[in-house]
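Entry for the shared binder. Reason: the reviewer on the internal report wants the predicted structure included alongside the sequence.
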Amino acid sequence: MLRFEVTVEDLLRSRFALSPAMELCTLLRSLAGQDRPLPRAWATRLLPAFERLRRETELNAALALHTPRSGADFIAPPPRGLNQTWAEDLSTIRATPLETARHEFATTATGPSARDPRVRAVLDSTDAVPRIAEAMDQAWHELLAADWPQLRAICERDVVHRVGVIGEHGWARTIESLHPGITWRDGGIELGFFPRGGTVRLAGDGLLLIPSVFVGPSVAAHLEDPWPRTLIYPARGSAALWGEQETVPQPDTLAALVGRARVRLLVALDAPASTSHLARSLAMAPGAVGDHLAILRDAGLLVRARSGRSVLYRRTPLGEALIGGSG
């Protein structure tokens, strides 16, 4: 069992962030067979480009920097917040001093793939960092960039939901909602399923919480510098990506009543969301989403409220009853 000792100061400093680089690394591990297998549709679509990148770029050198439970920190730098972009991550990767990278090579590149002559030549070169960074940038643009707006929207909606739980129920309920194996007990967070045991004291620095579409079905953690103490958990809505639930239940009778597009929106609003978040997560045109939301709101199925610079929609009791009654 892993336990985080949490103080009031830690709760005040805990925050959410998104990490494009971490998601890319997890995707690459899955494609390489080093992590959770991807859904068949994703694997079929991405594997040809992935194998080509392994042949034509230095991607194998980046893959060699992963151990069964961790990886080199410099290729997945700690994110600064919710607006983190791949361009920012790539800039940080490229700025890594060669000495820092070589120290990580020595501790992570220890498996059979690191003994491949081509990989070894990259890791031993004086331009190892820019070569690995270039390979990862090509992987980002060919494997993940097209899907990232939709996947990012899933993570952003997750954060909106968690913040709402904090406001209504507090931090203890929010932390426990991240995963069934997480409990809040005696002033601490306990992960009963975690492979590494022990106690981690946050020491007033707080906890970084990162929703992920690729990490799962359990949670991951960063416990050592340069990362802050971090929990990475499956984002709400990402289960559909892995075929663990239907992406969008569409009962025929309800679809006949209000239309399939509006059923999708009603189902998607299990947590408050903005027009842009819904458009990205459902791959719909923003104008069409806005028109459907207006009709659903006029019908009394949705309400809206401003939250900062965004307008969030949520289901009314009538909307909840309609979805619940449809099965």
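Summary line for the report: Residues 245-250 have pLDDT under 50 and may be disordered.
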